[in-house]
Target: N-acetylglucosamine-6-phosphate deacetylase
Amino acid sequence: MAASKVLTGARVVLPTGIVDGGRVIVDGTRIADTGTGTGTGTAPADAETYDVSGHWLVPGFVDLHNHGGGGASFSGSADDVLTAVRTHRAHGTTTLVASTVTDDMDVLTRQAGLLSELAEQGEIAGVHFEGPFISPCRKGAHSEALLRHPDPAEVRKLLDAARGHAKMVTLATELPGGLDSVRLLAEHGVIAAVGHTDATYEQTVEAIDAGATVATHLFNAMPALGHRAPGPIAALLEDERVTVELINDGVHLHQAALELAFHHAGAARVAFITDAMDAAGSGDGRYLLGPLEVEVTDGVARLVEGDSIAGSTLTLDRAFKRAVTVDGLPVQDVVAALSANPARLLGLDDRIGSLEAGKDADLVLLDEEFTLKGVLRRGEWVVGPHLG
Ligand SMILES: [Zn+2]
Model:
């Protein structure tokens, strides 16, 4: 059982607003209280006290779309998965959905079994299948030979293999079987995400009406916004039922595209994701993304064959810092995009996603420059706190 902790003097981002000189009291694995004041409040006498004046306290980050990190991948062994999870945890991601990439159905169902065990152990929040039901026209870093149409029976196979831990499936909804697959996913409480798609505006509207609620990395791997053919981007941005994923690494999106999405969808409908691959939190070099070879140069991952961008090397603490210091977004909007919105999408907002009494003690400590100085997960320090 983690010791009780009191963190005082911080700028605390609460659902109700930013509190200066705020306090968070942690009892075991949960948040016991939040508010103002420098004392120890209702904390037990033996609580550890931390003066974190001059720092921000924000909720732990929630990543909906992540393929790996620390040189390891969610397509690998249980040890690989844990390496990647711990790498991202050290960067503030206290909740993470493990994403697969297109592969043989046999490989995917086997991997789903392995990932579902790690979900049962509480290491990951579930599984996101990106592919194989995607468009060959927008395949990005997925093997063309392994792509297939979204047959609901095959989608069902993946859900069964994940034993209740499938959280999201990215699919090209315009392909044969696409809309039926969306309906199947919605019936099972699994997020149907429109992505790696060549759909028209009208086809995308149909997919949303059928139950799709997420745009997989909006702008990337889909037709551009055209004035006569607005395509998926317009449909996904305008519909209140849809949350749009954005990769805020300065590579996948122009700053103006990010601002356009934020402006149009509003902060409550944006989720920042990493779409990270193995090199995140690691370094440049040669890696694998599923079955494909990737070369990482200056932190940018590209397929060795074809030169397509192949995931990112982003961590969510960097996405946070960039959103505030480069994009100029309000801190509270960034917290929504990194924590509250993805937590709500996953149906976990009763436990995580904001700093509120009764929720898991998942906190990120940032200095005035928004550099990560500490990560508390379920009441235990995973990083730091590095104060002073
Ligand atoms: Zn991805």
